[in-house]
Design goal:
Blueprint: H1 9-18, E1 25-26, E2 32-37, E3 40-41, E4 50-57, E5 60-71, H2 74-77, E6 89-96, E7 103-105, E8 111-116, H3 123-136, H4 155-189, H5 203-207, H6 218-233, H7 239-248, H8 251-254, H9 263-275, H10 287-303, H11 328-344, H12 347-357, H13 361-371, E9 374-375, E10 383-385, E11 388-389, E12 396-398, H14 400-421, H15 425-437, H16 445-454, H17 463-475, H18 486-492
Helix pairs in contact: 4-6, 4-14, 4-17, 6-7, 6-11, 6-14, 9-10, 9-11, 13-14, 14-15, 16-17
Length: about 500
């Protein structure tokens, strides 16, 4: 590919997401690269382009972020080498690398492989992508390319296809949860403390046939439940950070904390300190903030001897363009209260018991939602961040909308896996029925735009349909799979 071709980075993101290159990718030093998960697109203005990706280089599997640039030199030109937000990058991909440089370096001094896309991508593909981007650049984020023609498609066809996609999306979540459960069990057996950036899953793991008896230990389920809830609390911009926090302040560490009347305060303290969000009291002017930090310092000094993990950096958290209710400080406060319920309130067994006993599905839905609505209290009732009193009182650490997200994306798939593993497929089917009738309060922009495109606004609150709309846009429309889509087949044929 000639160096004069100039490609917008959005096109390179598209290549990465679609894996539109000739595999296998190779590092400049000749190691094969396998892409296990391309990660999720980082829509924020700051930080790497893809978060929480999984790749294998040689025999090692890495989990972290991907940065994509037009030129190898952009890594330094854009200041990534001095920005803490790029410390978790596991692969740098550039369209051009004139001097065939093999690595870039993060601020913390870690060496990251750099690959040159032009070695693996056909020039004609780039030109086709340019043309495609020109045609759709002015489209609404979730607007379907065939939106002007969807009125010709029978409503039942649209509804049936979206329901099918919604159920498939649910099963994908179940599979992801089961895969993580197996990882946790395997690492537990080897007595390995999971690294934050990367770890190796050996051939022993990939060849392993797991059995139900392998998942008896409650700590494995508690850690999994904890990670999933924290991911949901992180919203779109801080979910990777919340997972990292849950893996750093893990269940084994938390169980060393002596339960007493201030246990929630202790959990809140250690999460805030490990997250890197606590400011030194001498840099605080607000009296309430100063008193709060001085108080939690006493808690931290008591629990600090039990912690030997890494600390996160304040700069890794996103506050920009978030509603204050979604600030990581507020979500961490809510998470501390849920941790207490997981470890000392027998939350997993209680939810399993209620799913078993409550036969009216509407009653069950309302009960599950209520479990994860967390009212505010203490310091964070009047503050969104340190050193600044909030304009209005914080009523909830976790409100009904976020509770809906937790039930749909965590509770239902988690317990579908739980009951399947422990030999109760009837309860797994019951959970799928709950999912099929669930009416959620929340909806994102993709759901709104797809619903408008399909003229199905009346169905956008129904979870299985809403999830199908997300899947339709992300896995069909945005990937130009029009003739694999039941709606597209009807329109274009």
């Amino acid at each position: 590919m000639s160096p004069e071709i100039k490609i917008p980075e959005n096109l390179l993101y598209d290549i990465w997401q679609k894996q539109a290159y000739q595999p296998p990718l190779k590092t400049e030093t000749g190691d094969d690269i396998s892409i296990l998960d391309v990660g999720s697109r980082n829509e924020d203005l700051a930080g790497p382009d893809f978060k929480n990706a999984r790749i294998r280089i040689g025999n090692l599997t890495f989990v972290g972020d991907i940065e994509i640039d037009c030129n190898y030199s952009d890594w330094k030109a854009h200041g990534h080498n001095i920005d803490n937000k790029y410390n978790s990058v596991i692969l740098h991909a550039a369209l051009l690398n004139k001097n065939k440089q093999s690595y870039v370096y993060t601020r913390n001094g870690r060496k990251v492989p750099s690959i040159c896309f032009s070695n693996f991508v056909d020039k004609q593909l780039i030109e086709n992508l340019k043309l495609n981007m020109t045609e759709v650049k002015n489209e609404v984020a979730g607007k379907l390319k065939c939106s002007s023609s969807t009125i010709s498609v029978n409503y039942e066809i649209k509804e049936k296809f979206l329901s099918k996609l919604g159920v498939e999306r649910f099963h994908k979540k179940c599979n992801k949860i089961y895969d993580r459960l197996k990882e946790l069990q395997f690492l537990n057996e080897l007595n390995i403390k999971e690294p934050v950036i990367a770890y190796e899953l050996t051939s022993q793991f990939h060849e392993r046939k797991f059995q139900h008896k392998d998942f008896i230990k409650i700590e494995i389920w508690q850690q999994l439940f904890y990670e999933l809830i924290f991911e949901a609390l992180g919203y779109s911009k801080n979910k990777a950070q919340m997972i990292e926090l849950a893996q750093s302040a893990n269940i084994n560490f938390l169980k060393n904390i002596e339960p007493d009347g201030v246990l929630v305060d202790k959990y809140e303290t250690l999460l805030l300190y490990i997250s890197g969000l606590v400011k030194p009291p001498d840099k605080i002017s607000d009296k309430d903030s100063k008193n709060y930090i001085e108080r939690i310092m006493l808690n931290w000094n008591a629990v600090k001897p039990f912690y030997d993990g890494k600390f996160m950096d304040e700069s890794s958290w996103h506050f920009f363009r978030l509603r204050p209710q979604n600030f990581p400080t507020i979500r961490i406060a809510g998470g501390a209260r849920l941790i207490k319920e997981i470890l000392h309130g027998n939350l997993i067994n209680i939810v399993a018991k209620k799913i078993t006993e409550i036969h009216n599905l509407t009653v069950l839905i309302n009960y599950l939602r209520s479990l994860f609505v967390i009212k505010s209290d203490g310091f964070w009732k009047t503050h969104f961040v340190f050193d600044q009193i909030s304009n209005g009182e914080v009523k909830y650490f976790v409100g009904a909308t976020r509770a809906d997200e937790i039930v749909v994306n965590v509770i239902l798939p988690f317990f579908a896996v739980y009951f399947e593993i422990f030999g109760n497929p009837q309860l797994t089917k019951k959970i799928l029925k709950v999912y099929s009738i669930y009416q959620q309060r929340s909806e994102n922009q993709i759901i709104i735009d797809v619903a408008n495109s399909l003229q199905m606004q009346d169905q956008s609150r129904k979870t299985v349909i809403a999830q199908g709309m997300i899947d339709l846009f992300r896995n069909y429309c945005s990937k130009n799979k029009c003739l694999e889509c039941e709606i597209g087949k009807t329109i274009f044929n």
